[in-house]
Design goal:
The chain folds into two domains: 7-38 and 178-217, no CATH class; 48-174, HUPs (Rossmann fold), CATH 3.40.50.620. It is an alpha/beta fold. It has helices at 8-35, 64-78, 98-108, 125-139, 150-163, 181-195, 197-215, and strands at 48-51, 56-57, 61-62, 85-87, 116-118, 144-147, 168-170.
Amino acid sequence: MKFLAYPNIIKSLTILASISILLVINLAYYFFDIRSKNFAPLVPKADCIVVLGAAVWPQGQPSPVLSDRLLRAVSLYKMQIAPKIICTGGIGKYPPSEAQVSKNFLINHGVPEKDILYENITTSTAQQSSQVKLICQQQGFNSVALVTSFFHQRRAIRIFQLAGVPNIFDARCVHTPYQDLNFWCIREALFLAKLNWPQWTILGLFLAIFIIRKLSF
């Protein structure tokens, strides 16, 4: 029986199923790829180190996630990977701003104040990428070592690339299992699937067309 004799709903279900399959495959790939990246890579020398903000806890204390990112930045600074550090992040649930807490933390860990730049108005990675690009243009920075959590690194680099930040080096930090890291990896996999939706949607449509043609014979 020719496929054209099937109800149109069958074609619609074929397309929906094909796109859904590609979505599930992409989510699984993103999750396992992100989960495998909980290690600190070697970082080439850069013009600056960028630390993405994270939650501030009551009484202005950095959350464990933010502390891990800042300790990584301190380590890279002391290794002379870059002479300047840019802190990012505005005020979240608790004041002060993530950038201000980050600056205080860095100073307390031996980074001179003169080597710290910051912006304290952003509330998302996309906003931070735009502000970092502006700072880099003002300071003449042509390369950045981007410090964020290992599970956030892939998406952060992509967002910074889309913003036009030049020469981004992976300087991710690791996290020990003080919390459910799988939850954060799943969350980032969902964000990446949303960010890259044209890719898996188009592949799903091609798969649907292939199936429909096969069933037509």
